[in-house]
Amino acid sequence: MTIDARRTAVLALHWQVNVIRPEGFFGAMLSDPVARSGVVERAIRFHTTARAAGVPIVFTRFTIPEDEGQLVRNTGFMAAVADAQEAFRPDAPGTRLIPEMSVLDARDRVVDNQKLSGLAGSDLPEWLADRGIDTLLLTGVATNLTVEQTARHGTDLGFTVHVVRDCVAAAAEGVHEASLANLDLATAGCRTAADLLAVLTSPETA
């Protein structure tokens, strides 16, 4: 596996209160499995080490502004969040990054959109391309939702995409593993944080 840290970015998907915490909109479904998995702590370590290696971290948040932005009610998921859109306003407590993720370095960026893919509905693909970034490493929740959607979308846009397999989680282990198996075929492959960091921090990639 060859990865050039200078051409790589981490997309940190939906590390927000509505997804991760019990009080969040999806808390009843996701907070317990996320807590049991230990994924937050692993992702923090991965982000911190990748950032120190010079890799930019881009956080994405699902938010719904007063005019609904680019929200389209074309799935059950989008209809559900549209019905509860006050909880997804950009300044609502639930849309904030969880405190563990909200200590941002000057290189970090936060992108809001109204799509399941973190690469849809914003200028993020162009922002990445303008900086010569062609490889994306994905962390986030849930594996079978925003992570899988973003991974497939990024691959179709021409990026080399690796999901960080131990820095993503889903509501059920079986769903999580099935999604990773699909993504092993549909992307450049899922990799562990340790494997990716070994390449990113190697003197040969500096």
UniProtKB/TrEMBL annotation:
Gene3D superfamilies assigned: Isochorismatase-like
Top-level taxonomic group: Bacteria
Keyword Transmembrane helix included in the entry's annotation: no
An annotated Gene Ontology molecular function: hydrolase activity
Isochorismatase-like domain ranges (all copies): 8-194
Keywords: Hydrolase
InterPro entries: Isochorismatase-like_dom, Isochorismatase-like_hydrls, Isochorismatase-like_sf
PANTHER family associated with the record: PEROXYUREIDOACRYLATE/UREIDOACRYLATE AMIDOHYDROLASE-RELATED
Protein name, entry field: Cysteine hydrolase
